[in-house]
Specification:
The mean pLDDT is about 90. Strand 1 and strand 2 form a beta hairpin. This protein is of the alpha+beta class and about 200 residues long. It has a 6-stranded antiparallel β-sheet with strand order 8-7-10-5-4-13, with no helix packed on it. It has a 3-stranded antiparallel β-sheet with strand order 1-2-3.
Length: about 200
């Protein structure tokens, strides 16, 4: 809760789905991203403000996606969900189900693991940074910040899209709360957001 000496109170709250809302003077709640849009941030700028992104490049030879290996992604110990494949050598560095933490990740990075390969299935449930268009007709198939579903992935592969930027999200270090809030926000521009807030304050 933000309580200034004068003017309006500002409250923030989560709902049961971990969507973040705000209220002005205890009136009807709105997604917190509406407030950010009203302040002049664009959708992509909101994503960049709260999240880091990893770039994935499709490798036609292996039919997998190449990305940089970053030891900082393993500051908390996890079990890897897929084999850790060294892109440069094609060899398996760690087997699926192996435990990895920052110390282990730093060691294998120092030993030469700079780039890894992931399968296309890795992207299901992940969030994209940029709008994705069908290059044949410029139809938007995914809006920035959207979660990739199986049918979206199939379309991405069908359209032969070679590069994806994916939000670096995990439930421990940086959850999807803001990006999920952005995705339920019906406002897309500053004008939309300002009008929505004004309707709440002056119904």
């Amino acid at each position: 809760r933000v309580i200034p000496n004068r003017w309006s109170w500002l409250d923030f709250e989560y709902d049961v789905k971990d969507i973040l809302y705000f209220r002005i003077d205890r009136k009807r709640k709105l997604p917190v991203t509406t407030l950010l849009l009203a302040l002049g941030y664009k959708r992509k700028e909101i994503l960049e403000l709260f999240y880091d992104f990893n770039t994935f490049l499709f490798d036609p030879k292996t039919k997998k996606w190449k990305t940089k290996f970053n030891p900082n992604d393993y500051k908390r110990p996890v079990k890897i969900k897929d084999d850790l494949i060294n892109f440069d050598t094609g060899k398996k560095t760690l087997q699926k189900g192996s435990k990895i933490n920052f110390v282990i990740a730093k060691k294998i990075y120092d030993d030469g693991l700079k780039n890894i390969l992931v399968t296309s299935e890795y992207f299901v449930g992940k969030y994209v940074k940029n709008d994705i268009f069908d290059p044949t007709n410029q139809e938007k198939i995914l809006k920035s910040g959207s979660e990739i579903a199986q049918e979206n992935l199939e379309k991405i592969l069908e359209l032969d899209i070679k590069t994806l930027e994916i939000a670096n999200i995990d439930p421990i270090n940086k959850g999807p709360y803001i990006i999920d809030t952005l995705n339920i926000d019906k406002n897309n521009t500053k004008e939309d957001a300002v009008n929505d807030i004004y309707k709440v304050l002056r119904p």
